[in-house]
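Box 3.1. Reading complex inputs
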Amino acid sequence: MTLSVDIQHRFGEFAVEARFDSAGRLTALFGPSGSGKSTLINLIAGLIRPDKGRIAVDGRVLVDTEARLFVPMHKRRIGMVFQDARLFPHLSVAGNLRYGRWFTPSSERYAKMDAVVDLLGIGHLLDRRPAKLSGGEKQRVAIGRALLASPKLLLMDEPLASLDEARKAEILPYIERLRDETKIPIVYVSHSVAEVARLASDVVVLAHGKVAASGPTEAIMQRLDLLPAEERGEGGAVLETKVLHHDEAFGMTVLASQAGEIRVPQLARPVGATVRLRIRARDVMVATEQPTGLSALNILAGTITAVRPGIGPTVEIAIDCNGAIVLARITEQSKHTLRLALGRQVFAVIKTVSFDSATTGAGLTVEADG
Amino acid sequence: MNWLLDLTPDEWNAVRLSIKVATVAMLASLPPGILIALLLARGRFWGKTLLNGLVHLPLILPPVVTGYLLLLSFGRRGPAGAFLAEHFGIVFSFRWTGAALACGVMGFPLMVRAIRLSIEAVDRKMEAAAGTLGANPLWVFATITLPLILPGLIAGAILSFAKAMGEFGATITFVSNIPNETQTLPSAIYTFTQVPGGDEGALRLTLISIVISMLALVASEVLARRVGRRMDIE
């Protein structure tokens, strides 16, 4: 799938001027509120008509103001999951799920009721009314409803933003399954680093209605300067890892990554499973010599490849550990005292307990932070 | 009880006619009522205030005036009346259809108000969601908007029916008071009160009138509650 967007749109004071292409499995539109990401997704869905520009999905042009072309939303075959589920109150859950099927030509119906109900774990809800569902259940039904219209592209507009942490944790695995087990490309709007780092294959960063950067998640997450101020503490390197083994005696899981072995609190994942690990830059210490007599269990050797000014009196240090970049945020003073500079051999030190379910993306058997 | 139900054929006809007139008035008002309510709730066009005023006019004008205006326009020689009679064979003057027209017009503002309010209360985001699922605007209206405004539709229909059951002034002005043709319950009661010894008949019809009105109200309550429970919007 390729999504290509090049549009200009303004209402009142606010203007969106965005241009990007994405061929990702799950593309995140990422930015703080007011950055234009919801406007952008509404433009793709056809809920808004742009002032100027062009949007195409897989070569099928949906809008082209120059050619005076505008495909109305009901002909776009683009599914949408809204922040506020928007289930139809006069229909049962099953009625909601079946709604889109009516309008899908039978030759293009690929989504199967049983498979979708299974994927989202909503089999026990089918006879209920939307008003009787919890927030998390509503959102799962809304995802199922969008899927069952057999869309060519699935848009998700902050589907977790109005849910509490427990409900978010309940839904995230379903979105991961959606990404990994179906072939539908997804565009996911979010302002949360945790969600983007965990779910996205590609990220488009938006700021003030413009595209600030776009690219693969690992690369974008390195750019702490792109993160909104309130989310900057969550920023850090994202590593693809595999579960090597579980250390039952100490309640830990050992992950294999390009940077070396990383010990995290025990994960409810089988050996061999892939885990996308986010290492918050603020959780990483830097040592110039191999530390000894230290409680921290993860010590990764590497070379400094970048030193960038951070927020306030801090610096961000990028450390290349065997080809994988780990980011550290330290004080200006530490950098000065340790004389950290490009090319210097250092050790990145990360406490095992600094990992939690938000950074490991997998249910911990024991919550480490509490 | 026997005394109550021991009606003369003419009285029975008045009861039957009233129910027929009110039902036809209500059903025939529904499609234009929904359309006008939609226009007023969602339309943005020049003359919206004028349309709104026009719809409400029967509520403000003395019923006799409304009846007279109907007579002028829908009477045999009236422009609308002559046109309809000539092309469609529909005649209103001094027929029960005229009574239904008068009752429909008098109840129209009440019906439009109720439907308009319920349309304005519909969450348009629901309609957008249906659109992304592939429903075109017509289907969205039929499968989302219409079910969501059902309580308002029922309320509007019942108001229109109730108004029609009680309508007197416009009806008697437009189509007169002809037994078995245009003599509805209120006209029949009025006639009884005008003749010596008519008190008993007037009282009988009055009681019947109360019973029918109560039944209609209770039915609407039950219906509205059932629909409301089904929807149960948080």
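In summary: Chain B touches chain A at residues 123, 125-126, 128-137, 139-140, 143-144, 147-148, 150, 230-234 (CB under 8 Å).
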